[in-house]
């Protein structure tokens, strides 16, 4: 089985080249003779990148298959240019044991569009009371590499410390949803002038920053790896810079929506804009963009969070937090980071593929585009634009905050180990 991508520009650099892929591996780059019977993808100068890796996806299976399944979520991921995603543990039942994580892993392999790596829960039932069996999950068929109670914060400092200590022996990473729960009781939106005017209880920046600071110190003293989920404030960027300068093994992600959207959206009253952590101010978003460009924030993760109409289309306070992200991530990064000159395409490869693959400890993802490397690839038309329609996205739920927006950057093909999983907006 061979495929030739004709006339692509790896990392958007240099003259167009042909890429020959045989048996899932890149075997030649340059002017390639098309083998008999090979599948040909005419790239016409488009940008070729390593397949994207999402450290933070909610696929809702098991438990809420009315909003997303491993099948539908894998399709959304492939169409968005992803070749691997990490599926969060806040399912029903919770992914806090080997049976559930193995189901998620196996189902992902059956669907075959993207590698679905289950995230294991840190605490039993996400209850924050006692540690889940991290070792059993790490040794299971799913080989769990990332643990998180995402949706909830591991707030107890003693439990968090233990989790970090165990993680070093298992060579896994603890990903924290940084939210001091005592500071966010009843919180509905970013604590600031806009929330105050609408009478919403505020979600203060310090609720995030205080946990990030605490966890960085715990990780430093335990010599453990910590990953910070969905950074949303400029103060968190300050803490991360400080911690990294001191040698803390901390990594962090930012979501596309926190790069682009702000609490100005509160004025719409539309709960499609409700998310945790909340949309912050313009100056926060600006700082998150520069922190990502500088590497203070390591990568982009979608926090793709599908929700049913009845859980979203209600009054603000009753709506669930979360928004879709897999199929729009590349375009939001193109809009906020590439068009602004903050990142070139090599930088996009770093924040959407290489760094997330390293943090998630995936040996076969985020690899260089070179002969001998696995053919996990994404082809992007940087000049094309498209209009977002929630109903047309592959997810079962349709809660996109970008409805009707015209965005730059179109994923034209995704290849997983040489197999074309998505092409021109269709699943293959
Ligand atoms: N981001 C959200 O607003 N919601 C997530 C949970 C989470 O990531 O905290 C969800 O599971 O819906
Ligand atoms: Zn979260
Ligand atoms: Zn999440």
UniProtKB/TrEMBL annotation:
Taxonomic superkingdom: Bacteria
Cofactor: Zn(2+)
InterPro entries reported in the protein's UniProt record: DHOase, DHOase/Allantoinase_Hydrolase, DHOase_cat, Dihydroorotase_CS, Metal-dep_hydrolase_composite, Metal_Hydrolase
Record-listed E.C. numbers: 3.5.2.3
Record: active site: 303
Pfam family, one: DHOase
Record keywords, A-Z: Hydrolase, Metal-binding, Pyrimidine biosynthesis, Zinc
Cofactor note: Binds 2 Zn(2+) ions per subunit.
Amino-acid positions noted as binding Zn(2+) 2 in the UniProt annotation, renumbered to this chain: 150, 177, 230
Example of a GO biological process term: 'de novo' UMP biosynthetic process
Pathway: Pyrimidine metabolism; UMP biosynthesis via de novo pathway; (S)-dihydroorotate from bicarbonate: step 3/3
Reactions performed catalytically: (S)-dihydroorotate + H2O = N-carbamoyl-L-aspartate + H(+)
Residues that coordinate or bind Zn(2+) 1: 56, 58, 150, 303
Cellular-component GO terms for this entry: cytoplasm
Function of the molecule: Catalyzes the reversible cyclization of carbamoyl aspartate to dihydroorotate.
Record-linked NCBIfam families: PRK09357.1-1, pyrC_multi
Protein name per the record: Dihydroorotase
Organism of this sequence: Amycolatopsis mongoliensis
